[in-house]
Amino acid sequence: MRKFSEFKIGDQFFSTCSISNKELDEYLSYSRVKNAFLEDRATGTQKIISGRAILSRMEGEFTRLSQIYGNQIIFIGTDGDIKWENRNTRFLKSLHTDEVLKIKFTVSGKEDIDENYGKIAIDYEGTTQDGEIVVLSKKNLYRIKKDLVK
Fold first, then answer.
1. Percent share of the chain, pLDDT over 90
2. Is 138 among the domain residues?
3. Which of 44, 106, 118, 135 minimizes the number of CB atoms within 10 Å of its CB?
4. What range defines the domain where residue 134 resides?
Protein backbone atom coordinates (compact mmCIF):
# COMPACT_ATOMS: atom_id res chain seq x y z
CA MET A 1 0.00 0.00 0.00
CA ARG A 2 1.29 3.42 -0.94
CA LYS A 3 0.64 6.41 1.27
CA PHE A 4 -0.56 9.76 -0.10
CA SER A 5 2.96 11.19 0.16
CA GLU A 6 4.30 8.41 -2.09
CA PHE A 7 1.99 9.03 -5.06
CA LYS A 8 3.55 10.98 -7.92
CA ILE A 9 1.86 12.47 -10.97
CA GLY A 10 2.50 10.07 -13.83
CA ASP A 11 2.55 6.91 -11.68
CA GLN A 12 0.83 4.05 -13.51
CA PHE A 13 -0.82 0.89 -12.23
CA PHE A 14 -2.31 -1.99 -14.21
CA SER A 15 -5.05 -4.58 -13.89
CA THR A 16 -7.15 -6.88 -16.06
CA CYS A 17 -10.71 -8.10 -15.64
CA SER A 18 -13.78 -9.33 -17.45
CA ILE A 19 -17.49 -9.20 -16.72
CA SER A 20 -19.54 -12.38 -17.11
CA ASN A 21 -23.16 -12.61 -18.25
CA LYS A 22 -24.14 -13.42 -14.66
CA GLU A 23 -22.24 -10.42 -13.24
CA LEU A 24 -23.82 -8.12 -15.84
CA ASP A 25 -27.29 -9.44 -15.01
CA GLU A 26 -26.61 -8.86 -11.29
CA TYR A 27 -25.39 -5.31 -12.00
CA LEU A 28 -28.43 -4.49 -14.15
CA SER A 29 -30.73 -5.91 -11.49
CA TYR A 30 -29.06 -3.97 -8.67
CA SER A 31 -28.78 -0.69 -10.60
CA ARG A 32 -32.31 -1.08 -12.01
CA VAL A 33 -31.05 -0.05 -15.44
CA LYS A 34 -33.84 -0.50 -17.97
CA ASN A 35 -32.57 -0.53 -21.55
CA ALA A 36 -34.11 -2.72 -24.24
CA PHE A 37 -30.80 -2.88 -26.09
CA LEU A 38 -29.13 -4.45 -23.04
CA GLU A 39 -32.00 -6.86 -22.36
CA ASP A 40 -31.67 -9.18 -25.36
CA ARG A 41 -31.29 -12.39 -23.39
CA ALA A 42 -32.86 -14.74 -25.94
CA THR A 43 -29.57 -15.84 -27.50
CA GLY A 44 -27.65 -16.60 -24.31
CA THR A 45 -24.49 -15.32 -26.02
CA GLN A 46 -22.18 -12.49 -25.13
CA LYS A 47 -23.91 -9.24 -24.32
CA ILE A 48 -22.80 -5.64 -24.65
CA ILE A 49 -21.81 -4.25 -21.25
CA SER A 50 -23.25 -0.89 -20.24
CA GLY A 51 -20.78 1.95 -19.80
CA ARG A 52 -21.58 2.47 -16.13
CA ALA A 53 -21.02 -1.23 -15.46
CA ILE A 54 -17.58 -0.95 -17.10
CA LEU A 55 -16.68 2.13 -15.05
CA SER A 56 -17.95 0.49 -11.87
CA ARG A 57 -15.73 -2.55 -12.46
CA MET A 58 -12.77 -0.32 -13.30
CA GLU A 59 -13.17 1.56 -10.02
CA GLY A 60 -13.48 -1.74 -8.18
CA GLU A 61 -10.25 -2.94 -9.78
CA PHE A 62 -8.57 0.35 -8.79
CA THR A 63 -9.51 -0.03 -5.12
CA ARG A 64 -8.15 -3.60 -5.09
CA LEU A 65 -4.69 -2.70 -6.41
CA SER A 66 -1.95 -3.56 -3.92
CA GLN A 67 -0.78 0.06 -4.13
CA ILE A 68 -4.26 1.33 -3.10
CA TYR A 69 -5.89 -1.34 -0.93
CA GLY A 70 -5.64 -0.56 2.78
CA ASN A 71 -5.85 3.22 2.36
CA GLN A 72 -8.81 5.17 3.60
CA ILE A 73 -9.96 6.32 0.16
CA ILE A 74 -13.30 7.44 -1.22
CA PHE A 75 -14.47 8.44 -4.69
CA ILE A 76 -15.53 12.11 -4.51
CA GLY A 77 -16.36 12.97 -8.12
CA THR A 78 -14.91 13.79 -11.49
CA ASP A 79 -13.48 16.86 -13.14
CA GLY A 80 -13.93 17.31 -16.85
CA ASP A 81 -11.20 17.58 -19.42
CA ILE A 82 -11.00 21.01 -21.07
CA LYS A 83 -10.19 19.36 -24.41
CA TRP A 84 -13.44 17.38 -24.12
CA GLU A 85 -15.65 20.38 -23.24
CA ASN A 86 -15.34 19.48 -19.52
CA ARG A 87 -16.58 15.91 -19.94
CA ASN A 88 -14.52 13.20 -18.36
CA THR A 89 -15.40 9.89 -20.06
CA ARG A 90 -15.40 8.63 -23.64
CA PHE A 91 -16.52 5.18 -24.80
CA LEU A 92 -14.84 4.35 -28.10
CA LYS A 93 -15.68 0.68 -28.60
CA SER A 94 -18.21 -1.80 -27.24
CA LEU A 95 -17.15 -4.37 -24.68
CA HIS A 96 -18.96 -7.69 -24.46
CA THR A 97 -19.31 -10.08 -21.57
CA ASP A 98 -16.33 -12.36 -20.98
CA GLU A 99 -14.01 -10.16 -23.06
CA VAL A 100 -10.79 -9.21 -21.29
CA LEU A 101 -10.48 -5.54 -20.32
CA LYS A 102 -6.91 -4.38 -19.74
CA ILE A 103 -6.85 -1.32 -17.48
CA LYS A 104 -4.21 1.33 -17.00
CA PHE A 105 -4.61 3.76 -14.09
CA THR A 106 -2.51 6.95 -14.20
CA VAL A 107 -2.14 9.49 -11.40
CA SER A 108 -2.92 12.77 -13.19
CA GLY A 109 -3.23 15.10 -10.21
CA LYS A 110 -2.43 15.36 -6.53
CA GLU A 111 -3.21 18.09 -4.02
CA ASP A 112 -3.65 18.70 -0.33
CA ILE A 113 -7.16 19.12 1.06
CA ASP A 114 -6.20 19.73 4.69
CA GLU A 115 -3.77 18.35 7.26
CA ASN A 116 -5.50 14.95 7.31
CA TYR A 117 -6.56 14.38 3.70
CA GLY A 118 -5.30 14.78 0.17
CA LYS A 119 -6.91 14.38 -3.23
CA ILE A 120 -5.60 12.33 -6.13
CA ALA A 121 -6.92 12.37 -9.69
CA ILE A 122 -6.80 9.08 -11.56
CA ASP A 123 -7.17 8.63 -15.33
CA TYR A 124 -8.57 5.27 -16.45
CA GLU A 125 -7.82 3.68 -19.81
CA GLY A 126 -9.50 0.39 -20.74
CA THR A 127 -8.43 -1.58 -23.79
CA THR A 128 -9.29 -4.92 -25.34
CA GLN A 129 -6.86 -7.82 -25.32
CA ASP A 130 -5.79 -6.58 -28.79
CA GLY A 131 -5.03 -3.06 -27.54
CA GLU A 132 -8.12 -1.33 -28.95
CA ILE A 133 -9.30 1.45 -26.66
CA VAL A 134 -12.74 0.79 -25.14
CA VAL A 135 -12.96 3.67 -22.65
CA LEU A 136 -11.00 6.70 -21.49
CA SER A 137 -12.04 8.37 -18.24
CA LYS A 138 -10.06 11.33 -16.95
CA LYS A 139 -9.80 12.97 -13.55
CA ASN A 140 -11.65 10.50 -11.34
CA LEU A 141 -11.13 12.14 -7.94
CA TYR A 142 -10.42 10.35 -4.67
CA ARG A 143 -10.02 11.70 -1.17
CA ILE A 144 -7.26 9.79 0.59
CA LYS A 145 -6.13 9.92 4.20
CA LYS A 146 -2.59 11.26 4.57
CA ASP A 147 0.21 9.92 6.66
CA LEU A 148 -0.19 11.25 10.16
CA VAL A 149 2.94 12.84 11.55
CA LYS A 150 3.24 12.49 15.31
1. 74
2. yes
3. 44
4. 4-145
